[in-house]
From TrEMBL:
This is ABC transporter ATP-binding protein. Keywords: ATP-binding, Nucleotide-binding, Transport. NCBIfam families: oligo_HPY. Gene3D superfamilies: P-loop containing nucleotide triphosphate hydrolases (3.40.50.300). InterPro entries: AAA+_ATPase (IPR003593), ABC_transporter-like_ATP-bd (IPR003439), Oligopep_ABC_C (IPR013563), P-loop_NTPase (IPR027417). Residues 32-282 form the ABC transporter domain. The keyword Nucleotide-binding applies. The keyword Nucleotide-binding applies. Pfam families: ABC_tran, oligo_HPY. SUPFAM superfamilies: P-loop containing nucleoside triphosphate hydrolases (SSF52540). GO terms for molecular function: ATP binding. Residues 1-28 are annotated as: Disordered.
Length: 374
């Protein structure tokens, strides 16, 4: 079931309207701080890490994109924000601090259900997975309202219909339909409606444009931008499509092998990528104009749970900048031009630049002293 939030303030349990009556001024966009998050999956080879100590800060009111190849850990990270990793997976270490909730990983039972319902909205990658095939959309909406204490079902339905109509759908017809009576794009919009109708403050979209035609994709992205701005949300978008990320997001985190390898302003990351993996992703994008032969696929294959290296840099087998230190030492994130990058080669180049700049400053100071003495 898609999780939603009737809360209008930053504190769980605050009174709130049952639908979309609250405006942006009534809500506080939460910030998110993920620290040293480790998620493991039980396999015949033992517990293997899907996330290996991820740290990520999502600023309040921003749209942050998570990109990377399949298996990089994007969806696992997104589910961890809801403390919703399912067996055989488990969160074994770290914290997920969300403003107004605290550490979500310390919540359980009814407290966790209420936190998901009152603070967080989630739009699943396959929209049909969040819909009950035996119930109409309207009945599922009422079930959702009852489970989260909405005391005015008519207002809830009215707000849902209004939001669906904003998305170009016949609200009344959709609410009276079962999922098999809706197209993929319509189901995706229903998922967005269910995630927003109770005023979620943090909205997580997992591949919201997958398998949609270009026109429907453009509609979904327009809706995401408009609703995010109007309601003052914090939004996390998981996508494999860098073009989608460039269209919508403010900040971009690039994941590989269960690690965040680069994170910063979207246009900085896409326009001048620093990590060799990010550079490879950008080079692999097909060209519609210019030299179409410039697009080159990344060599090799992304790692699986069973092939992730136990130590060192997870990208080293495919990296053109591979060094001896990459074999044994995992690169720590360093600040480079308004972004963080986890790469020994980039860190080394940055250190060399700093040393050169210090030499220039010292030389300028020396010349200045000599001129003063003269």
């Amino acid at each position: 079931m898609t999780t939603t939030s009737p809360e209008t303030g930053g504190h769980p349990g605050a009174p709130s309207p049952p639908g979309l009556a609250g405006g942006p001024g009534d809500m506080t966009a939460p910030g998110v701080r993920v620290r040293d998050l480790v998620v493991v999956y039980r396999t015949p080879l033992g517990e293997l890490p899907a996330l290996g100590g991820v740290s990520l800060t999502i600023e309040p009111g921003t749209i942050t994109g998570i990109v990377g190849e399949s298996g990089s850990g994007k969806s696992t990270l997104a589910l961890s924000l809801l403390n919703a990793v399912q067996p055989p997976g488990r969160i074994s270490a770290g914290s997920v601090e969300i403003d107004g909730l605290g550490n979500v990983l310390e919540l359980g039972g009814d407290d966790l259900r209420q936190a998901r319902g009152r603070h967080l909205g989630y739009v699943f990658q396959a929209a049909q997975n969040s819909l009950n095939p035996l119930k109409t959309v309207g009945k599922q909406l009422l079930d959702l309202g009852r489970s989260h204490g909405a005391d005015d079902p008519r207002a809830l339905v009215r707000d849902a219909r209004s939001l669906l109509e904003r998305m170009g759908l016949d609200g009344a017809r959709v609410l009276d339909s079962h999922q098999h009576q809706l197209s993929g794009g319509m189901r995706q919009r229903v998922g967005i409606m269910l995630a927003l109708v109770l005023n979620a403050q943090l909205v997580i979209l997992d591949e919201p444009t997958t398998a949609l035609d270009m026109i429907t994709q453009a509609t979904i992205l327009r809706i995401v931008r408009e609703v995010h701005k109007e309601r003052g949300l914090t939004t996390l978008m998981v996508t494999h499509d860098i073009g989608v990320a460039a269209e919508v997001t403010d900040r971009l985190a690039v994941m590989y092998g269960g690690r965040v390898v680069e994170h910063g302003p979207t246009m900085d990351v896409i326009g001048a990528p620093s990590h060799p993996y990010t550079q490879g992703l950008i080079r692999a994008i097909p060209r519609l104009s210019g030299d179409t032969a410039e697009a080159r696929a990344l060599p090799g294959r992304p790692p699986t749970l069973g092939t992730l290296p136990a130590g060192g840099c997870v990208f080293r087998e495919r990296c053109p900048l591979r060094m001896d230190v990459c074999e044994t030492v995992e690169p720590p994130p360093v600040l480079v031009d308004r972004r963080t990058v986890a790469c020994h080669a980039v860190a080394g180049a940055r250190q060399e630049r700093v040393v050169r700049e210090e030499r220039v400053v010292r030389e300028q100071e020396r010349v200045g002293r000599e001129e003063e003495r003269a």
